[in-house]
Design a protein that fits this description.
Elements (H helix, E strand, L loop, with lengths): L1 H11 L6 H37 L5 H46 L11 H25 L8 H20 L5 H10 L1 H15 L8 H21 L1
């Protein structure tokens, strides 16, 4: 069921039907990441560089250059950790567009879902943005613990992204409380699907398409789960 949903979502990523939403999600994701890069860089220059200069005055040129390289790597890692929450925000804005395309092309005989009200969708996405940031900070700290390391990234994002995208997809067809209850009932399935999203998120460049892939995949998964509920 999970692999079928992932395969169906991946097969649609570059299809003509997805072209409009593809360009919107990709463009907004890139724009948000670029804005965050400049914001983080400016914050680093404002707060960290004066402190380093005061602590280590008279550094040789090579040491200063090495410091800038290390800082650049740190900034890149910080930006990588922000891809997941940025994905949540972008998905909150365009999930209904993705879902409508999937439902129209792959489930033409089924009743269409209802769009989640824009303000409610944005509020949920902003709330989740904060949760994912906190979760990824915890994951970053766990990277320092032997035996856990990179698994922390997949576990944290697998759980959080799986939960978020499934509930978004489910709320097109059922009230929020019922969507959450359905997600809890199939918690293991949703978590495993979230791990696939986390794996997608870990691939450079491809991860820019995470909102599109995750939203489409969870629409398919919700359809499969709903069909199982009727049996």
């Amino acid at each position: 069921m999970i692999l079928d949903a992932a395969r169906a979502a991946a097969s649609r990523l570059f299809s003509p039907e997805f072209r409009s939403v593809f360009l919107k999600t990709l463009g907004l994701t890139v724009l948000a990441l670029v804005a965050l890069w400049f914001a983080i860089s400016s914050l680093f220059e404002w707060l960290a560089l004066p402190w380093i200069d005061a602590l280590l005055p008279g550094l040789p040129a090579w040491a200063g250059l090495l410091g800038l390289i290390i800082a650049g790597i740190g900034l890149a890692l910080g930006l990588a950790l922000l891809i997941a929450p940025v994905t949540a925000i972008v998905a909150g804005l365009f999930l209904d567009d993705v879902a409508e395309v999937v439902e129209r092309t792959d489930y033409p005989g089924d009743p269409p879902g209802r769009a989640v009200p824009a303000l409610h969708s944005l509020a949920l996405a902003i709330k989740f943005f904060g949760v994912v940031i906190i979760g990824n900070i915890v994951a970053l700290l766990l990277l320092l613990v032997p035996g856990i390391n990179i698994a922390a990234f997949f576990i944290v994002n697998g759980y959080l992204l799986g939960r978020e995208f499934f509930e978004f997809a489910a709320m097109r067809f059922r009230p929020e409380a019922e969507a959450k209850a359905l997600r809890r009932k199939y918690a293991g399935t949703v978590f495993l699907a979230g791990l696939l999203i986390a794996a997608f998120l870990a691939v450079p460049l491809l991860n820019l398409l995470t909102p599109l892939f995750a939203a489409a995949m969870m629409v398919h998964l919700h359809k499969a789960v709903s069909a199982r509920e009727l049996v």
